[in-house]
Design brief:
Layout lengths: L6 E7 L6 H6 L7 E6 L6 H7 L3 E4 L5 H14 L4 E4 L11 H9 L5 E5 L12 H18 L10 E4 H7 L8 H11 L4 E5 L15 H21 L1
Parallel strand pairs: 1-2, 1-4, 2-3, 5-7
Antiparallel strand pairs: 4-6, 5-6
The chain binds guanosine-5'-diphosphate and magnesium ion.
């Protein structure tokens, strides 16, 4: 299926020592390189990731987007053809990576979102406000750019050449929605595949906290309206 295409995985992580080794261990063998971008963890996330076989990079600027940008820079230098993003909390099933990359590998798509809305979701794995936020953000994308997504899920695959076209900028919580908006604006071939989702290991830093939820919601809405008004 891959015919020489190199697959690189970026894992942005902050204090995920309990889950990170499982995330890396469960990735399928078609993955060529795993990059863990540590954003100043105070636990053993980096050590555990290195022992599990990942390249560990440190990004001093705190933020999900900064970590992803750092991972992309590394994979570009390593000549990856397909980039996969997955969180470090073991909510996603790394084994699902094979079906996630399949449309890109077969040249049926440029960008694939792993959708937790059409996949099997453990009860309580996504909190009600996260489900509502996803619904609202994807509805706004449909209204403004006529692209139908069902999720802003973090588990996603994109062709490196397409990713470079998008010139990603967001440094924090607007990362996932920015990628989808820009994919729509650039008319990338986007598809969704169902992915499974379970309760995370360890503590949530975003949707499981009040401040994370407020900041993420504000940034996602700001990003949508900013791009809508500038297009
Ligand atoms: N690099 C980096 N990763 C982060 C940051 N905040 C959260 N993460 C990671 O982003 C992913 C999603 O965060 P999580 O706490 O699971 O949020 P939730 O899915 O809304 O509960 C996890 O892999 C976290 O380790 C951050 O500031 N920097
Ligand atoms: Mg999570």
């Amino acid at each position: 299926m891959l015919e020489g295409q190199r697959v690189g995985v970026v894992i942005p992580a902050l204090n995920e020592e309990r889950s990170i080794a499982s995330v890396i261990a469960d990735l399928p063998s078609c993955v060529d390189e795993v990059v863990l971008v540590d954003n100043g963890s105070t636990d053993r996330t980096s050590e555990r990731a290195r022992s599990a076989g990942a390249i560990v990079l440190h990004e001093p600027r705190r933020g999900y987007g900064y970590a992803c940008l750092r991972g992309i820079d590394h994979l570009r230098a390593r000549r990856a053809d397909i980039v996969v993003f997955i969180d470090g909390d073991y909510s996603d099933y790394p084994e699902d990576l094979s079906s996630l990359i399949s449309p890109v590998a077969r040249d049926r798509a440029d960008f694939v979102i792993g959708s937790r809305m059409i996949g099997e979701r453990e009860v309580g794995a996504m909190l009600p406000h996260a489900l509502f936020g996803n619904w609202l953000a994807t509805a706004l994308i449909r209204i403004f750019w006529s692209y139908r997504f069902t999720d802003l899920g973090p588990f996603r695959a994109i062709r490196m050449a397409s990713l470079q076209q998008l010139q990603m900028r967001d440094c924090t919580y607007g990362w996932t929605v920015e990628m989808q908006i820009k994919a729509a604006k650039h008319k990338l071939r986007c598809v969704e595949v169902p992915v499974r989702y379970r309760k995370r290991i360890g503590k949530s830093k975003i949707t499981g906290t009040v401040s994370g939820t407020v900041k993420a919601s504000a940034k996602i809405l700001y990003t949508i309206f900013r791009y809508a008004l500038s297009s």
